[in-house]
Design goal:
Length: about 900
């Protein structure tokens, strides 16, 4: 056999992979049915398959081999995975499934106290490129945290160089088996499809394509929750085809598609996009609803026949595939049309997004007209009659149909013409993105433009397009403004928001509801850019417009009051008027059924009260937010649990430690139940528990909570949430400082140096004071001074009217002065801290008294304050919950 050139191997390898994925007795049929253009490789493939079989018989896979892409010098034998075997930190339990290149095993850590089963993805052999492939899958999965997507826990390379990927182990059945076992009806199956669509839309919004949607990758738990699996051949929408290593990785291994679920463009070898996932979803829906493959006749013949069918054959509608009469009736019409639209051969004819497809499914369930069907007035009238058949009497329906048809038809026609013009303008705009020169035969090589690029192009074009269709343009400005903001395109988002305001001014006038809506549409941009003055002025203008128009929509009014109060509290030190606006927003939202912005309003009230130094009012606002979430969302909702954890912090700062323990523990229990053991918000709760344990004098338990908080914050999926990670690190410094673990404090402060940068002012001060204490202890007084000066600058800017926020800085400054022998100045600083009557700084006050006692500088006034503090702490929780500050005050 002559040596294969790189170009030859590029053509042969995908065919070899496909053959190796088959059982040995099926490979000959695969070779016999190769397409004519690939028959030239038949003899080569036959020899390669024979060589592979001979190597396997000789035990080749048990020999050591170098793993390309592993750590330098690593080597790995081709694995023969067995139960009980250790791979990195994992012990294998049983094989869950296997594909052409990898198998998935149920596994658990082989050591340590933290035991949790995972689904461990492992290669069949140390093939070239596997490490890069798993790294790509890890990086894509790290972006995704959704109830409908199996979570990524960890990834790595074992000591012998083998890559592995640890994912959530989902207990359940694939979607087809689950429905067959339950004999699910059509509505339940549509409900499952909606869950899949929502998960895919979330992935697409994070610029991740799945590319391998099929029943085996859609698991359903016993409770009916769908979990999407296996992003092994997924890719990023944010990268062009040649820029993300896709071609190289494809050459290194599996062909990126499952033939039965592959879109026509994938079969042709074109770069897939969102439209390909929509198509694969359509095949899944066809199988789930119709009970067969849309290409059932071609699938058994050969891969070549199946691919030809995908490219050329229009499958029958799902209702024609089922033998059940009742199911056929349920599918006929809307569901047939929805699935057919998803399976359109041309990507442009499919649904543009999974959201659009899901919206049509929801319209069908609600009895509304679906967009996949022609918008005739007869169809829409029929849907309306069916939807209201129990509310409208038979005689009324007869009159409506026989007498009112003409008027209804005329009105429907007018609305249809208006909607058609708008839809036509939207269509022209969309097609113009792919064919800007309006050529008769446009270049369609890039028909599947990555979503980020498509949105960016669309945003730039809409700024100067559709001037003659202002309503369509107005809607595009709203939608593209939101999308560009979510995709991190702030300049474009700002231009779109400003253009929306400009267009609303021209179309509707500056006293219109649309203009006020457009002004408030800039709220997130103002806040993220720190443009609080503009936000406050525009929010005030919007509120005035609503009031002049007699606006009755509580959601609109609440948003305006929320913006006025929220921006006011940031523009200046919070004043009563800011809090009044926020309270008005709460009053508007409180009576409304269902979830709304009420929890957000109470969060803003907490911030406003804290800005005033009113810790008790902040706590009370937080408790009202907890109660609102319990009523609106239920006691088991994750947002309710998160609010409990947040208020637990305030309970701790207002000397309610028992309540803090109950709230935080219950909140963490709810979060784990609702979102699993690794959601990033749990890191904050574990940090809160660490501070509670420190207050109780349980140093070892505090360190254990810090370790768990760090574990969660450092998971690949959570590392981008830097605020949580910084909170955990600040807590770790607090625990080390309060327990006298100077080595841990030194290690924690080492990377900060003299310049601490953190997003939240209070967080910066926590880190600055802790590292200043470490610098004083180490004798590095210059660094300590620099950190203290930075802390005072932050306090002067953000907490000038809240001296309690500066107490820890004064405490550390006293230590800095004492280190220079300036004892009287140091004592003055400590007395300043001790004299602050604020329960939120009880630890700092207790430390100040201990420093004064050690310096023999306690006077009668200071002794009296200490006695009152002891009584206060005894009443709040005593030795059981507040042992550490009580020991400092008593000298224990």
């Amino acid at each position: 056999m002559s040596a294969l050139t790189p170009d030859d191997w590029q053509a042969v390898e995908p065919l070899l992979d496909a053959a190796l994925a088959l059982a040995p007795d099926q490979r000959q049929h695969f070779l016999d049915t190769l397409p004519p253009a690939q028959q030239r490789w038949r003899a080569t493939l036959d020899r390669l398959l024979q060589a592979e079989a001979a190597a396997a018989d000789a035990g080749f896979l048990s020999l050591a081999a170098s793993l390309a892409g592993g750590t330098e010098g690593s080597a790995a034998g081709a694995p023969q995975w067995q139960a009980g075997q250790h791979v990195g930190p994992w012990a294998l339990i049983e094989e869950l499934g296997r594909g052409g290149m990898a198998s998935v095993w149920r596994a658990r850590p082989h050591s340590g106290d933290f035991q949790r089963e995972v689904a461990l993805k492992l290669p069949h052999s140390p093939a070239q490129g596997w490490l890069e492939r798993l790294k790509r899958e890890r990086d894509l999965l790290a972006r995704l945290q959704h109830a409908g997507i199996a979570r990524l826990y960890d990834a790595g390379v074992s000591a012998d160089g083998l890559p592995w990927l640890a994912m959530e182990c989902v207990a359940g059945r694939d979607i087809l088996a689950w429905c067959e076992a339950r004999q699910s009806g059509v509505p339940e199956r549509v409900g499952l499809l909606l869950q899949v669509a929502d998960a895919l839309q979330y992935a697409h919004s994070r610029l991740v394509l799945h590319r391998d949607i099929k029943p085996a990758n859609v698991m359903v738990q016993d409770d009916g929750q769908v979990r999407l699996l296996d992003f092994g051949i997924a890719r990023s929408l944010a990268a062009r085809g040649d820029g993300d290593g896709e071609a190289e990785l494809t050459q290194l291994g599996q062909r990126p598609m499952t033939p039965e679920y592959a879109s026509p463009e994938q079969v042709r070898g074109e770069e897939p996009g969102i439209a390909s996932d929509v198509y694969a979803f359509g095949v899944l829906a066809y199988r789930l609803l119709g009970g067969a493959s849309p290409y059932a006749a071609a699938a058994p013949a050969s891969r070549h026949a199946l691919e030809r069918a995908v490219l050329e054959i229009e499958p029958p509608v799902p209702s024609a595939a089922t033998r059940d009469t009742a199911t056929r009736k349920d599918l006929r019409g809307d569901l047939d049309a929805i699935v057919a639209k998803a399976l359109a051969k041309e990507p442009a004819r499919r649904y543009a997004t999974m959201d659009a497809l899901a919206a049509d499914l929801r319209r069908h369930l609600a009895g509304d007209a679906v967009e996949a069907r022609p918008p005739s007035w007869r169809y829409r009238a029929g849907r309306a009659i069916a939807r209201h058949r129990w509310a409208v009497g038979a005689s009324t329906l007869a009159v409506l149909v026989l007498v009112g048809t003409t008027g209804w038809a005329l009105q429907a026609a007018r609305e249809a013409r208006q909607e058609a013009r708008r839809a036509g303008a939207m269509y022209e705009f969309l097609t113009g993105l792919f064919n800007p020169l309006r050529e008769a035969q446009p270049d369609t090589r890039n028909r599947d433009v990555p979503a980020r690029q498509l949105i960016e192009d669309g945003a730039r074009r809409v700024l100067g397009a559709l001037q003659d269709e202002p309503l369509a343009r107005e809607q595009l400005l709203v939608d593209l403004g939101t999308l560009t903001q979510q995709l991190g395109l702030p300049d474009l988002s700002r231009q779109l928001a400003e253009e929306r305001v400009h267009q609303a001014r021209i179309l509707h006038g500056t006293r219109s509801r649309a203009y006020a809506d457009a002004l408030l549409g800039q709220r997130d941009l103002w806040e993220s850019a720190g443009r609080y003055r503009e936000g406050f002025q525009s929010a005030t203008e919007s509120l005035a417009i609503y009031e002049a128009l007699g606006e009755q929509d509580p959601q609109r009014l609440a948003l305006a009051h929320l913006a006025v109060g929220g921006f006011g509290a940031r523009l200046h030190a919070p004043v009563p008027a800011d809090i009044a606006h926020l309270q008005t927003a709460a009053q508007l939202l409180a009576p409304l059924p269902g979830p709304n912005l009420l929890g957000t309003v109470y969060e803003q009230l907490i911030v406003a009260y804290l800005g005033q130094g009113d810790m008790e009012s902040a706590y009370q606002a937080g408790m009202r937010g907890v109660q609102a979430n319990r009523v609106q969302r239920g006691v088991d909702d994750w947002k309710t649990a998160a609010s409990e954890d947040q208020v637990g912090q305030l309970a701790m700062l207002t000397l309610r430690p028992a309540e803090a323990v109950a709230l935080i523990n219950h909140g963490l229990q709810g979060l784990r139940k609702a979102m699993g053991p690794d959601v990033v918000i749990l890191a904050r709760g574990e940090a809160n528990l660490a501070l509670l344990e420190m207050a109780a004098g349980a140093h070892d338990r505090a360190r254990a909570h810090v370790a768990e908080a760090r574990r969660i914050a450092l998971l690949p999926a959570n590392r981008a949430m830097t605020a949580f990670g910084l909170t955990v690190e600040a807590t770790a410094l607090d625990v080390a400082q309060q327990s006298g673990d100077w080595e841990a404090l030194r290690e924690g402060c080492q990377h900060w140096g003299r310049d601490v940068q953190a997003p939240q002012p209070a967080l910066r001060i926590r880190i600055q004071q802790a590292c200043a204490a470490q610098a004083v202890h180490a004798g590095d007084l210059d660094r300590a001074r620099a950190l203290l000066d930075q802390g005072h600058a932050v306090a002067a800017q953000f907490f000038a009217k809240v001296p309690a926020r500066q107490a820890v800085l004064w405490l550390r400054e006293g230590e800095w002065l004492a280190a220079q022998g300036r004892t009287e100045e140091a004592a003055a600083r400590w007395k300043q801290v001790l004299g602050l009557d604020d329960p939120s700084i009880v630890f700092a006050r207790a430390q100040a008294f201990a420093r004064l006692r050690d310096a023999h500088a306690v006077d009668a006034a200071g002794q009296s304050v200490a006695q009152r503090l002891i009584q206060q702490l005894q009443a709040a929780g005593g030795e059981q919950l507040l042992a550490t500050p009580m020991a400092l005050l008593r000298g224990g």
